[in-house]
Specification:
InterPro entries: 4Fe4S_Fe-S-bd, Fe-S_cluster_ET. The protein is built from two helices and six strands. By secondary structure, it is of the alpha+beta class. The structure holds iron/sulfur cluster.
Length: 85
């Protein structure tokens, strides 16, 4: 693993079972997160909204990674799942 090099893409999905729908994620990173019609968080992939759960995994643009990480740490349900692989 190199230092300061981008080895892996960051991927993110929402575990809706734990989501409170309070919308902190959308507040922190509206490019990636949104509150869906059922009142729970989902992720965007460009203009489309992905399904809930691991099926709705999106690759995060490098410029959004920091905010996604911040949202995952702030999320009260601990339901923002980040994979780096
Ligand atoms: S911050 Fe977490 S609990 Fe709140 S809406 Fe987003 S995913 Fe759900």
């Amino acid at each position: 693993m190199g230092h300061g090099e981008r080895e892996e893409d960051m991927k993110v999905w929402i575990d809706q079972d734990r989501c409170t729908g309070a919308g902190l994620c959308e507040l922190l990173e509206p490019i990636v997160f949104t509150i869906g019609e059922d009142g729970l968080a989902v992720v965007h992939d460009g203009d489309s909204v992905l399904p809930a759960g691991p099926a709705g995994t999106v690759t995060v643009s490098p410029e959004n990674e920091r905010q996604v990480l911040e949202a995952s740490q702030a999320c009260p349900g601990r339901c923002i799942r980040i994979d780096s692989e």
